[in-house]
From TrEMBL:
InterPro entries in UniProt: MCM9_N (IPR058768), NA-bd_OB-fold (IPR012340)
Pfam families: MCM9_N (PF26066)
Domain MCM9 N-terminal: 4-102
SUPFAM superfamilies assigned: Nucleic acid-binding proteins (SSF50249)
Protein name, as recorded: Minichromosome maintenance 9 homologous recombination repair factor
Length: 112
């Protein structure tokens, strides 16, 4: 992926998880274990409907796109964390991972 593609994927995903998964991220930020690994499961169909290019890049460069998604997820979590008051018992988690669901059904949808 080139740098423009990385930037686009990161911006779209950060915006998407901030809007659709804010509560999931808040629950993770409230967890006590800062070293645990925390998944945020994203529905592929909904995400790719937001921006079709993301789906195309995901199909062409799945490993690279997941790495960009993880970075964007951490940026979103940091933004959410910074918007909260300190008394809410939250902390940043570095091991956030985007997990994409329903990917298998995308490749064959419409085929019988």
């Amino acid at each position: 992926m080139n740098s423009d593609q990385v930037t686009l994927v990161g911006q779209v995903f950060e915006s998407y998880v901030s809007e659709y998964h804010k509560n999931d991220i808040l629950l993770i930020l409230k967890e006590r274990d800062e070293d645990a690994h925390y998944p945020v499961v994203v529905n592929a169909m909904t995400l790719f409907e937001t921006n079709m290019e993301i789906g195309e890049y995901f199909n062409m460069f799945p490993n690279e796109v997941l790495t960009v998604f993880d970075s964007a997820l951490r940026r979103s979590a940091l933004t959410i964390l910074q918007s909260l008051s300190q008394s809410e018992g939250v902390s940043m988690k570095e091991n956030l991972h985007a997990r994409i669901s329903e990917v298998g059904s995308l490749c064959c949808s419409g085929w019988s």
